[in-house]
DNA sequence: TTCCAGGCGTATC
DNA sequence: GATACGCATGGA
């Protein structure tokens, strides 16, 4: 890894990394674009401003970040130990995936917090991305950061009315109580075989196969999980009626990121033109 | 006004 | 197991 300390910042040279494609592609909901090539967000209670200094050479500045913090938090969060160039070469054996990877070559899979992913994707169901961000924005503003299950212990669907989350508020409080009681173990879900991990999470009211897979993929880096939302269902119906190709085996969740982003933008362009 | 959104629970067959 | 429908909210 190629990084240097500069004043209070860390400057990183990193290929296969684009801020828009990684932070605004529907995997995380509380990164805010604060300038043309700058985002502000957080992992757990650790805030970060990250900016791109040189798009062509892939140079990034992690503002006000110590070396310990960079190596201990952000290296993992941005999945900097994974070679996405190698992944994309493997995927490019498939014609459609080759196009999807070329369309947004700077996508990376974030290693997010499990509870945040679970609760965020409960909120995401039958909802659109701008409104998901709105609800999560009100949640974090109210609690001064993303609330833990413990911080939500005494909330009820009614006390969460300010979120304007609709029917999802009761799902959220059920997730809180089951996680706190140990009825659902996020730690178990990290290591159980995928189908059993999915069933563990689906004990929560309002968590079905799709939200469970999103939790496994985005909150636990279970990259074999393949969340089937409306867009991925379109991907499979249009391009892969017989299933995803052999070259994605074991990393379906990462391949899904490229395909999800690709088909959403293809459709948007088709509508615009 | 109607349709839809990174779905799920329920009823019905 | 599959299919149909309602669900809160708000933007297009």
Summarize the structure in words.
The protein is of the alpha+beta class. Among the domains are: 2-81, TATA-Binding Protein, CATH 3.30.310.260; 114-220, Hypothetical protein, domain 2 (Endonuclease III, domain 1), CATH 1.10.340. The chain contains twelve helices and six strands. It has a six-stranded antiparallel β-sheet with strand order 1-2-6-5-4-3. Helix 4 packs across helix 12 and helix 11 (230-239) crosses helix 12. The protein is globular, with a radius of gyration of 19 Å. The chain starts with a strand and ends with a helix. The structure holds a DNA duplex (13 and 12 nucleotides).
List keywords for this structure.
273 residues, alpha+beta, TATA-Binding Protein, Endonuclease III, domain 1, 6-stranded antiparallel sheet, 12 helices, 6 strands, 48% helix, 12% strand, globular, DNA-binding
CA distance, first residue to last residue: 42 Å
CATH architecture group name of the domain at 114-220: Orthogonal Bundle
Query: Structural class per helix/strand content?
Result: alpha+beta
CATH superfamily of the domain at 114-220: Hypothetical protein, domain 2
Strand count, sense and barrel status of the largest sheet are: 6 strands, antiparallel
Report the radius of gyration as a whole number of Å: 19 Å
CATH topology-level name of the domain at 114-220: Endonuclease III, domain 1
Shape by Cα distribution: globular
Quick one: how many beta strands?
Answer: 6
Helical segment count: 12
The strand order across the widest sheet is 1-2-6-5-4-3
Uncertain parts? none
